[in-house]
């Protein structure tokens, strides 16, 4: 936790917060903070600043806080991701949040196992909890917007064309002749398939709606390794 993320419910006064639970345990056990120590803090959706510990008791940390710095700029990248395995999704959501992606769509694909959609991780609260871990790691305060789309074809046909207006629209596809560009200027929308890739029909449908198939080299990576590598290459 490189930043203690604060929520409205934490404030007992405009410049005072009371923390319990996971954040208290981290402050006590990992930061090993004592009264008078200062920590980096940020208000959800707002600025970053410092918090001075005023008291630590058996289950509560009290801090005086002030804010004077904007969070990092978001990446101009929208990620359309075929729903991965739940264990991988946890890591991917945290990584996406840490790297500054603010729009993530989790979508259906022919190779996505139907049972993945039953995962409790897909609840709004659980996804938000993993976003928070990513924001704390990267010293950011702005939550990504995560949307779930259970039907591939209607999403690609009806929504995707509006999403990619003014964007460089790419679909990651190992068989593509064109290599993925590096350091793209301007907004990008990237569609990433499941492990095993999009089936030909899905690639063709994306291409018909304005996406350019691109390859990322000869190596085939797991989704949780590919996503950060692709984000780094594009940005």
Protein architecture, described:
The chain has 235 residues and is of the alpha/beta class. The chain folds into two domains: 4-69, Beta Barrel (Ribosomal Protein L25, Chain P); 75-234, Alpha/beta knot. The chain is 30% helix and 29% strand. It has six helices and twelve strands. It has helices spanning 21-29, 86-99, 124-138, 152-163, 200-208, 223-234, and strands at 4-6, 11-13, 16-19, 38-43, 48-56, 61-69, 75-82, 101-107, 145-149, 168-172, 188-192, 212-214. The strands form two sheets. It has a six-stranded mixed beta sheet with strand order 1-4-5-6-3-2. The protein has a six-stranded parallel beta sheet with strand order 9-8-7-11-10-12, sandwiched between helices. Helix 2 crosses helix 3 and helix 2 packs parallel to helix 6 (223-234). The protein is elongated, with a radius of gyration of 20 Å. The protein starts with a strand and ends with a helix. 30% of the residues are buried.
């Amino acid at each position: 936790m490189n930043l203690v993320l604060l929520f409205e419910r934490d404030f007992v006064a405009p410049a005072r917060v009371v923390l319990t639970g996971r954040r208290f345990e981290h402050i006590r056990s990992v930061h090993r903070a004592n009264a008078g120590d200062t920590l980096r803090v940020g208000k959800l959706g707002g600025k970053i600043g410092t918090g001075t510990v005023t008291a630590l008791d058996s289950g509560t940390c009290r801090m005086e806080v002030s804010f004077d710095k904007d969070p990092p700029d978001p990446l101009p990248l929208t990620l359309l991701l075929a729903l991965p395995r739940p264990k991988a999704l946890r890591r991917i959501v945290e990584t996406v949040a840490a790297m500054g992606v603010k729009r993530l769509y989790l979508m259906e694909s022919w190779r996505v196992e139907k049972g993945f959609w039953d995962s409790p991780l897909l609840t709004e609260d659980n996804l938000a909890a993993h976003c928070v871990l990513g924001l704390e790691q990267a010293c950011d305060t702005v939550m990504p917007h995560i949307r779930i789309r259970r039907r591939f074809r209607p999403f690609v046909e009806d929504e995707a064309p509006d999403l990619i207006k003014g964007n460089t629209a790419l679909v990651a596809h190992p068989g593509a002749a064109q290599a993925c560009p590096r350091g793209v200027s301007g907004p990008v929308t990237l569609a990433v398939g499941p492990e095993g890739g999009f089936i030909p029909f899905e690639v063709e449908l994306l291409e018909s709606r304005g996406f350019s198939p691109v390859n990322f080299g000869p190596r085939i990576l797991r989704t949780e390794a590919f996503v950060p590598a692709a984000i780094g290459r594009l940005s």
